[in-house]
Design a protein that fits this description.
There is one protein chain. This protein is an alpha/beta fold and 495 residues long. The protein is globular and about 70 Å long.
């Protein structure tokens, strides 16, 4: 094994494939994955929207680790191939020499495992962080039992700890249909699949299997609210007319204890964006995606982005062949100069039907629920307060005055609107509301969502406890004499 260190982030199919290929080429390979996660980390909805109901069985760290690691056969193959595997470890930053980092001349990653934080140098980096849930809000979405499709899938297949016995799935793309099948296979009843479009968006064969299993499909329908007090006990859905508007008097209640939001998924862009990789908006690949070539090379030399982190589409949900091939090519390309001829693959020429699903859902949810629905749970900002740029509620009326008019360009900037309203500044770091907020700004301004300036990503891109980043205690001498730093200076002394 040579000393060239290749670090792969994410132990999904693409990440493990890249790690195995790199190990075959005698690189020094480290594979990092944040699963199995502690409940404290999952409660912050990173990386998925787990919601407020986390089963008590997750507190048994040993049993959880056995389930998660046992569910990933490729991870065991990586260990057999000599790959260093770090689990329950998140990457919170990619630090590279430059104007903002002058004290080191090596590339390094900031890692943390909940108890400590440290740095790991690397030569080449492969980002395979997958995709996360696209969440749109509705009345009752804060109730325990409401969660995203990615989270539900992880709890089902990795953690075997979803909880609940009867689910409603929102969205009929392949993400939703696959999840419904997984729920049934796990012995959980699927009461309904709800879809705003007039027909099911996903794979016909999957749909046929679900219909045969007794799953009801409510097309041209939207969720009105999740009903419950301590947790979800039902949902109310409403029919939509041909213009996508709610039909008065069509409300129907469906008993359930779990609501899975499968409206869409978006690439996990945080680490690539924080690193400085160029990104472009492509609705057919899930929104903002890193610019990469056919080998997964990003705009930054020595950084590759593969798998769903490089883009998602409805077809790719069921067929991972292309993702795996690009992950393999990324490992093969390591050591080959990128050169001036590097060109990213072109954006998709035409977006498939499912690419507009988030906008259709947003329009239906706005028509049914209006602007009073909470957009940001952490800061309790409603949709109306967000698009009106209302100051946070905790400010006194005298403190809520604006210094001047706000131009159109600022109204189309997520960072600017975030600073005005605090939407996205909560402990979840905007994971629940970021994509909804971008869609809402585009809708309010009459612009395509790709023209909205996305919010920036800064380190740490994962929530860290202070204990993990705190420095060592000062020496006894410093502790004994520290008050001298606060003594007034004598005349003539310099501070």
């Amino acid at each position: 094994m040579n000393s060239h260190r290749v670090v792969v982030i994410g132990a999904g199919l693409a990440g493990c494939c890249a790690a195995l290929e790199a190990a075959k080429r005698d690189f020094n390979v480290t594979l990092i994955d944040e699963h199995p996660q502690a409940p404290s980390s999952m409660s912050l909805d990173a990386p998925y929207f787990y919601g407020a109901r986390l089963p008590a069985t997750l507190s048994d760290a040993g049993a959880v680790a056995d389930r998660v690691l046992g569910a990933n056969a490729l991870l065991l193959d990586c260990l057999d191939a000599g790959v260093e595997v770090l689990t329950n470890t998140c990457v919170w930053a990619n630090l590279m020499p430059g104007p903002n980092l002058l004290y080191t001349d090596e590339k390094r990653l900031g890692l943390a495992d909940g108890e400590r934080s440290w740095f790991l140098p690397y030569d080449d980096l492969i980002i395979a962080t997958g995709a996360r849930d696209l969440v749109l809000s509705f009345p009752g979405w804060q109730l325990p039992g409401v969660l995203g499709a990615q989270a539900a899938g992880a709890l089902l297949t990795r953690y075997q700890a979803l909880g609940g016995t009867k689910a409603v799935v929102l969205g009929s793309g392949n993400v939703g249909l696959r999840l419904a099948r997984q729920l049934l296979d796990a012995g959980i009843e699927v009461a309904a699949v709800v879809e705003v479009a007039a027909s099911v968006r996903g794979d016909p064969a999957l749909q046929a299997g679900l219909v045969a299993a007794g799953v009801a499909f409510h097309t041209s329908s939207v969720i009105d609210s999740a009903i419950g007090e301590q947790q979800v006990r039902a949902v109310r859905v409403c029919a939509l007319d041909q213009q996508g508007l709610p039909v008065p008097g069509s409300e129907e209640c469906i008993d359930c204890d779990t609501v899975c939001i499968a409206i869409g998924v978006v690439p996990n862009l945080e680490l690539a964006a924080q690193s400085g990789c160029k990104a472009t908006y492509d609705a057919a690949r899930g929104g903002w995606v890193p610019e990469t070539d056919d080998c997964g090379r990003s705009s930054l030399e020595h950084i590759y982005v593969v798998g769903e982190a490089a883009g998602v589409c409805d077809k790719g949900v069921l067929d991972s062949v292309q993702h795996l091939e690009r992950a393999r090519r990324a490992a093969v390309a390591i050591g080959t100069p990128q050169g001036a001829e590097w060109k990213p693959t072109t954006a998709s020429a035409a977006a498939p039907l499912a690419a507009d699903a988030p906008n259709e859902w947003l329009r239906a949810l706005l028509a049914q629920g209006g602007l009073s629905v909470v957009l940001c749970q952490c800061e309790e900002v409603t949709r109306g307060e967000y698009i009106a740029l209302e100051a946070p509620r905790y400010l006194q009326p005298s403190e809520r005055r604006r210094a001047g008019p706000i131009d159109a360009s600022n109204r189309a900037s997520q960072d600017f609107v975030k600073r005005m309203t605090r939407c996205g500044m909560g402990h979840c770091q905007g994971r629940r509301c970021r994509d909804h907020a971008a869609l809402l700004l585009a809708h309010a301004n009459g612009q395509p969502v790709g023209s909205i300036v996305p919010g920036s990503f800064r380190a740490p891109v994962r929530p860290l406890p202070l204990s993990a980043i705190a420095g060592p205690d000062e020496s006894e001498a410093v502790s004994r004499t520290w008050p001298i730093w606060f003594q007034p200076l004598n005349e003539g002394e310099m501070g």
